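lol ok so funny story. i was supposed to be doing the assay writeup but got distracted and ended up predicting the structure for this chain instead. priorities right. anyway since i did it might as well share w the group, maybe its usefull for someone
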Amino acid sequence: MSTRSTAHVARIVRQRIIPVVRCTFAANLDERWDGTHQSCGALVPFAPQRVCPACGQLQIRPHAPTPTASSLVIDGPATIIDAETDEVVCVHWTGAAELASRLGRQLSDVQWHDPVNKKINNSGRLSGLRVEHRVFGFTPPAPMRKRYGCSRSTFNVDYPEAMQTISDFCVLAEWVFRTFAPDVHERTGAAVREAIPNAWRMAGTLWTSGIINHTASLPYHKDSANVPESWSAMLGVRHRMGGGLLHLADYDLYLAIPHGSISIFDGQSVLHGVTPMQPLGPNAHRYTAVTYAKSIMKCCGDPAHELKRAALAATKAEDARMRP
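and the output, tada:
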């Protein structure tokens, strides 16, 4: 159970800015793959695939820097308010420690690598990045993978107890969203419910799918392929791991992501990245379970229809394969 308290939630007003990051480039593909990046030291507007005006090097996505003594670091319950619009742009809540501990125990048995090819499970939204992760929830058709209809992910099937905990997290996260950002919740909720049938939303909430990142210091990025206007929710699961703060660059603030924290914001419009991590003891880890509403799931019909569609598509594909 989680403590659903609405007391002592700070209201922090921040001006939105143009994110400025440290020049980051890789001299060659080997450096880019190994993560041995270089910099001329210049501070430049975030613009991957453009050249640094100071050194002329093609920019890649940098990682968030460790906060300084003057940085704003939020480690308790708070709502972040845009100074110009007076709207909530982020909710950070810290009442899910028991839920996070349960998920942490369940994730200790998860297979993070492909048992056949011995490679990192790199399907889903982080393709091309060398980080351990697993996707969960519902997935759209993927004929190239011989998945011909909307269905549950393999994670749901392989780890039902962990998936139940994630479903509990989704329900709690929606309560947090609705409680601390009711206007945004109503607007974004309407967009998701109009786009995605209830059967393909986890526990009937606003999210169809998600990803678990295993101790991954992700570079700055914006989310993509979500339902327009939808927000994501993230549960922090941490054990003996330092660092790993989430930097919301557009508002120049850090979320500490303590164990049992829930962070909800629009990852499609707010640039965000994770700071470096430092193990502080044995079995150190930092999991984050991130939920989102995938726009492509709007193609899904009712489950009975999907079963029929998948069977017909599989038969058609097999007929084509056997045809001379």
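Helices lie at 29-34, 97-107, 154-158, 160-180, 182-195, 303-322. The chain has a mean pLDDT of 89.
back to the writeup now i swear
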